Amino acid sequence: IPSIARGERACTHARLGMENFAPPARGGGVLLGPSPARAAASDAEDDKVILLIEEGNKLFQQADYQEALAKFKEACLSRQRTHGEDHIETARLLNSMGNAHNKMGDDQQALDYYGRVLAIRERDLGTSHAETARALSNCGIVRHKLGHHQAALQCHRRALEILETNPAVGPGHPDVARSLCDLADVHDDEGEYAQALQLYLRAIGVSEECFGEGHPDVARAIIGIGNVNMHRAAYKQARECFQRGLAIQERCLGKGHAAVATTLTNLGLAHEKLGDKEVALSMHARALETQRRMLGDMHPDVARTYSHLGQAHEAKGDLDRAMECHSDALKIRELKLGLEHADTAYTLGRLGGIYRRKANYRKAMEYLHLSLAICEKVLGPVHLGTAIAAHNLGGALQRSGEPEMAEVHFLRAVEVLQQQEENTGKNHPFLQYATESLDRCRQAMGQAL
After folding, report:
1. Would you state the torsion angle of the CA atoms of residues 246, 193, 202, 61, taken in this order, to the nearest 10 degrees?
2. 238-287 residue pLDDT tens
3. Would you say 152 and 184 are in contact if contact means Cβ atoms under 8 Å apart?
4. Which of 44, 114, 273, 300 could form a disulfide with 105 if both were Cys (CB 3.0 to 4.6 A apart)?
5. How far is CA 391 from the centre of its chain?
6. What does the longest C-alpha to C-alpha distance in the chain come to?
């Protein structure tokens, strides 16, 4: 049973890197300030914080996120003692701690920190300030990763509106292009491909105007269009987009960068869909090696690449190695994302599909029932992912000799996909396949349409 490719995001935007920390204002020389002893103590505390920030930034750039987090946490505690828990300077360190958690794949903890930053900036800077918009973007990115798509859309729409209307930023600013891509990413995963494509094209226009054609921000939008093409089953066009984006990233970021690894997984998926199985395996293996070195063994991005590598082994018929890869992905996703996450449901579905191909229908249905239940709860009853999960379960039920129950799930998949077509006005490539599955099931039951 085919699956819709799950394209990855080139998530190297500036707002998820380190913010530039200006040295705090000194107290010395102010006639009505604190006593000389207290001023000296304050200066010493400021020097300590500045050093911790510099060390944390260096560790962050070296991808040593755990150690960077420890430095930021120590600096933040110092700031809280001198400035208070809700001070704007404290918020900058809270943001850095959120960045470190985000890079380590601790999405809920990252969201907690970003939420605190947003509350402080809205109160102290106002709801139309550019820094408030950047905090909204961070919240939206992590909510998207957590599968909270509607909440992510709200965050990104607010951020985009602020950035476009803020006189200090305006519609031609690089942050607007990044915000357009953030919003497009969510629309793409919601199956709203026309909206996503329009946003990516706008982002390319802004980024090229700011930086020229060979910038990583341009590559990000091109890769986004590749993701849309993957979801539309336009695999040759997707491969072209990924190749263009990869060439820019390798030239600008180097071949060992995490964003390059992400694009390699995309390109591997496109090659797999086009029948280039050995090339796909090579791409995923290169990506996995880079990600494990940069991110560690238990990062969600590593889980995604394990999943793609398993998918490539499935395509070659090596079910044992495929199961091993998907099992590794599941361990990471259950630990980092939790059971009730769309990515966890996807991996459960892949494992269920392998058990079906091995004729272990009891185990297959155990995994596929759980995958469908999670999709229904996390994505909703009329989402594309839910339709695919229902279809996959129908296939296992039919193979196990339960055609009546299989028909129920095939019919549900068809109805959801038909509703998707009505909502988007576009033909969905999976609908014909699901309809044929339903027809074959009914033929086997003597009820051909």
Report:
1. -40
2. 999 999 999 999 999 999 888 999 999 999 999 999 999 999 999 999 99
3. no
4. 300
5. 25
6. 95
56 phi and psi angles, rounded to 5 deg: -65, -45
The residue type at 51 = L
Give CA–CA dist 393/44, Å, rounded: 64
How many residues can be counted in the chain? 449
Judge if pTM exceeds 0.85.
Answer: no
Amino acid sitting at position 245: G
Distance CA 177, CA 221 (A): 9
- Structure token pair of residue 447: 């009820």
CB atoms within 10 A of CB 28: 11
Q: Of the given ranges (191-200, 319-328, 417-426), which has the lowest mean pLDDT?
A: 417-426
Dist. CA 198–CA 209, nearest whole Å:
17
Token pair listed for 206: 């802004």
Place of tokens 């031609």: 172
Q: How far apart are CA 342 and CA 376, in angstroms?
A: 10
Tokens at residue 204, please? 């390319």
Burial class, 446, CB count within 10 angstroms (exposed 0-12 / middle 13-18 / buried 19+): exposed
Q: What value, to the nearest 5°, has the Cα angle with vertex 356 and ends 355 and 361?
A: 90
351 vs 32 pLDDT, higher one: 351
Q: Cβ distance 79 to 87 under 8 Å?
A: yes
Q: Which two tokens stand for residue 156?
A: 């990104």
Cβ partners under 8 Å of residue 345, min gap 6: 370, 371, 372, 374, 375, 378, 385, 389
d(CA 283, CA 305) in angstroms, rounded, equals: 10
C-alpha to C-alpha distances, 444 to 289, 365, 398, 399, nearest whole angstrom: 46, 20, 9, 11
Q: How many helices (DSSP H) and strands (DSSP E) are in the chain?
A: 19, 0
Contact in structure between 347 and 326 (CB atoms under 8 Å): yes
For 125-161, write each residue's pLDDT tens digit: 999 999 999 999 999 999 998 888 999 999 999 999 9
Q: What is the pLDDT of residues 375-432, one digit of tens each?
A: 999 888 988 889 999 999 999 999 989 999 999 999 999 999 888 777 766 677 788 8
Q: What Cα–Cα distance (Å) separates residue 333 from each residue in 236, 279, 301, 304, 310?
A: 30, 26, 10, 9, 15
Gyration radius of the chain over CA positions: 24
